[in-house]
Amino acid sequence: MKGSQIFNFKSVGIKLFVILFCTIVLLSSVLGLTSYSFAKGIITNEVAAASSQSIVQAADKLDFLFAEYEALSRQFAVDPVLKADMELINNPAAGTVEKVAAEDRIRRKLDSVKGSDERMFGIRLVAKSLVDVESYKSTGTSSIRSDEGVLERLKQIVDAKGNPVWFPVRAKGFFDSYNEASLTMGRLLRNIQHPDAEYYMLIEIKGKALTEVLSNLHIGQGGEIRIVNSEGIIVYGSDNALLGQPSYIKISEEQAKQQDHSYTAGDEEGNSQLVVYQPLATAKWTMMGYAPVSDFTQSANKLLYITLLVVLAAAFIAVLIGYSLVRMIGRPLGKLAGLMEEGEKGNLQVRTNFKSQDEIGRLGHSFNKMMEQISLLAGQSGLSANEVLATSEQLVAASSTTSLHAREVATATGDIALGAASLAAEAEKSNQNVEIMGLKMNQVAGINTVMDASAGKVIGVSNQGSELMKQLVNKSESSVEKMNLIVQNTDKLRQSTHLIRSILTPMIEVNKQTNILALNASIEAVRAGAAGRGFIVIADEIRQLANQSSQSIHSVSRIADEIGMDIENTVKVVNEAAPLFHEQITSVRQSSSIFESVKQEMEDFIGHIGQSSLSMAELLQFQRQLGESMASVSAVVEETNAATQEVASMSSQQFIVSEELVTLSAKLEGLAESLRESLVSFNV
Q1: What span, in angstroms and rounded, lies between the C-alpha atoms of 174 and 135?
Q2: Burial letters for 161-178: b for 16+ Cβ neighbours within 10 Å, e otherwise?
Q3: What are the C-alpha distances in Å from 39 to residues 260, 297, 300, 307?
Q4: What angle do helix axes 533-680 and 359-528 make, rounded to 10 degrees?
Q5: How many helices (H) and strands (E) does the chain have?
Q6: How is 256-276 classified by DSSP, letter by letter?
Q7: 17 within 8 A of 323, measured Cβ to Cβ
Q8: Are 312 and 325 within 8 A, CB to CB?
Q9: Are 124 and 136 in contact (CB under 8 A)?
Q10: Percent of all residues in the chain with a pLDDT value above 70, rounded to a whole number
Q11: C-alpha span between 276 and 267 (Å, rounded)
Q12: Residue 291: which H helix or E strand, with range?
C-alpha cells in the first residue's frame, strides 16, 4: 500500500521528482551540447579563416598566370611586324615569295613562344574563314574544326571586340581534338584599316598547369578545389568528367558581396561542407574549395562523451533528491488527502497526527481546526433547516391562491385585447387596399398618358413612312430608266466588239504575208552569199516584228472576245433584273396605302385614350375621399387597441409574478428539505 502511494504518478511528490529530474538532466545536456556546438563553431571559423587565406593566395597565383598570357596576347596585338606580315599575306597584289617569307616568320614566332613555355599545348592564329590552310599554328597543334560549338566560342571572341576571353577547361581542348584537358584564352587581333587581316588568336594551356599551380592548396583531408563561372558551371575540377556540369554547391550573388568568403553548405550526398571561395580578377570565374566539416570537428567529439558522463551523474543525483522529496512531502500530503476523502463521505471525526513544525505540520493542525468548525456549523444548520421548511410550506399555499386569481384576470383581459387587435388589423388592411387601389389608378392614368404620347409618335412615324415610300417609288422609277439606258449602251458595246474583230482579221493576214516575205528575203540573201548578209539581218528583224505584231493582235482579239462575253452576261442580268424592279414599284405603292390606313386608325385610338383618362381622373377623386374616411377609422381603432394591450400587459405581468412566486416557494421548500437530508449524513 505504501509503495503504491509513493509511486502514484498523480502525487505531488512524484511530480516534483519528475520536474527536478528533467530539469537537472536537461540543463546538463544543454550545457554539454552548447559547449560542443561552440567548440565546433570556433574550430570551423578558424579553419575557414585559414582556408580563405590559402584560397586567396591560390587565386592570386592563377590571376598572375592568366595575366601573363593576356600580356602575351597583347604583345601579339600590338606587334607591328606581325601586323605587317598578316596584311601582306592577305594582299592579293603581293608576290608569292613575299607571302611565303611572311608565313614562315609567323610560324617561327609561334613556335618560339610555344617552346619557351612548357605549360602550353600550342598557340595559333585562326583565319576568320576557319580554313586550316589559311591559319597558322605552332608545331604539335591539331587541325581546325568548324562545328557549331566552335563557332559559338569564336562568336564570343568577336563580341569581346579585342579583349581577352577565357574559355573553361575542356576535356579534349578548344577544338575537341586532344587526348587531355586544356584551358584556352582567345583574343581577336583587330585591324581597322585591313579587316581581311584580322585573326583569332588562341593560346591553349594544359589542364595540368592549373593542377600544378593549385597542388599546394589543401582544404581538410578530403577537400576538393573547383573553379566555377557566374552561372555555377564547373570550369575546372580534379575530375574531367565534371567539366561543364552544374556545381551542386553554388555561390549566390549575396554571398559574393560579403567580405567573409566562407560558408557551410550540403553536397550532393547531403553532407555538411565548409566552403571557401575567391573571385578571380582576370576571368569572370570564382575559385572554390570545400571539405567535409567532420574533418575539422573530430577533436570536438570528445566533448560529447564528457557530456554523456555528466548527464548520467546528474540523473543519479536527481533520483536521490527526488526520493527525499517524495518522503518529506508526498507521503504526508497523501495521508492528508485520505483523511479529507473520509470527511467528504460525512465522517467529521477524522483528525491528523502530524508533529512536525514545518508547513506540513501547520497544515495538519489547520485541518483539525477546520473539521471541528464544520461539525459545529452542521449542527446549527440542521435546526435552521427545520424552521425554513415550515415557513416555506405556508408561503407555497398563499402563492398558489394568488396565482389562481391572477390567471383569471389575465385571461379576460387577453380576450378583450385580441378583439381590439382584430378590429385594428381589419381597419389597417382596408386602408392598405384603398391605398393600393389609388396606386393602381395612378399607374393606369400614367399608362394612358404614355400611350397617348406613343400614338402621337406613331402618327408622326406613319407620316414620315408615307413620305419615304413616295420617294422610294420615284427612285425605283428612275432606276428602271437607268436600266434601260444600260441595255442601250450594252448593245452599242456589242456592235463595237464586232467591229474590232472585223478590223483584226485583215491585220492577221498582213502579218502572215509579212512572215512569208521575210522568209523569201532570207532565202534570196543566202543565195546572194556574202553580199546578202545584211539583208538576212533585216529579214530576221522584220520576221520578229511580224511575230510580235501577231502576238499583240491575238491578245487584242482574246480581250475583245472576253469583253463580248462580259457584255452578253451583263445584258442577261439586266433583262432578269428589269421585272424585279417593276414588282418592287408595285409593292412600294401598296406599302404607301397601308401607311395611310395605319395613320387613320391611330387617330381614332388617341380619341378613345382621351375618354379613358377623364374617367380615371374621376375615379381618383372618389378614391381620395374613401382613403380619408378609412384613415379616421384606423386611428380610432389603434387608440382603443393600445389601451387594451396596456391593460393586458399589466395583467400578464401580475400573473407572471404570481407564477414566479409559486416557483420560488417550491424551490425554497425543496432546498430546506435537501439541507435537512444532507445534514443527516454528517456524523457530528
Answers
A1: 15
A2: eeebbbbbbbbebbbeeb
A3: 20, 8, 6, 13
A4: 170
A5: 11, 10
A6: HHSSS-EEEEE-TTS-EEEEE
A7: yes
A8: no
A9: yes
A10: 67
A11: 14
A12: strand 285-292
Angle in degrees, CA 219, 221, 225, rounded to 5? 40
C-alpha cell belonging to residue 186: 582567345
Average pLDDT over the chain, rounded to whole?
75
Contact 86, 189 (CB under 8 A): yes
Q: Give the pLDDT confidence of 161-210 residue by residue, as tens digits.
A: 889 999 999 888 888 888 888 889 999 998 888 888 899 999 999 888 88
Cα–Cα distance for residue pair 126/132, rounded to 1 Å: 8
355, containing H or E segment? none
Distances in Å between the Cα of 323 and the Cα atoms of 13, 20, 21, 309, 358 are: 8, 11, 10, 22, 19
Q: Look up the pTM and report it.
A: 0.43
189: how many CB neighbours lie within 10 A of its CB?
A: 19
Q: What is the pLDDT of residue 1?
A: 39
The answer, yes or no, to whether residue 6 has pLDDT greater than 50, is: no
Cell numbers describing residue 217: 592548396
Residue from 680, 682, 684 nearest 346 by CA: 682
CB atoms inside a 10 Å sphere around CB 157? 21
pLDDT tens per residue, range 357-377: 666 777 777 777 777 777 777
Residue 412 and residue 652 in contact, taking contact as beta carbons nearer than 8 Å? no
Neighbours of 492 (CB within 10 A): 10
What per-residue confidence (pLDDT) applies to 384? Answer: 67
Asked if 239 and 252 count as a contact pair (C-beta separation under 8 A), the reply is no
Angle of CA points 291, 293, 294, to nearest 5°: 110
| Residue owning grid cell 482574246 | 558
Among the listed residues 189, 185, 187, 158, the one whose alpha carbon sits nearest the alpha carbon of residue 81: 189
> Hey, is 349 helix, strand or coil?
coil
CB atoms within 10 A of CB 502: 8
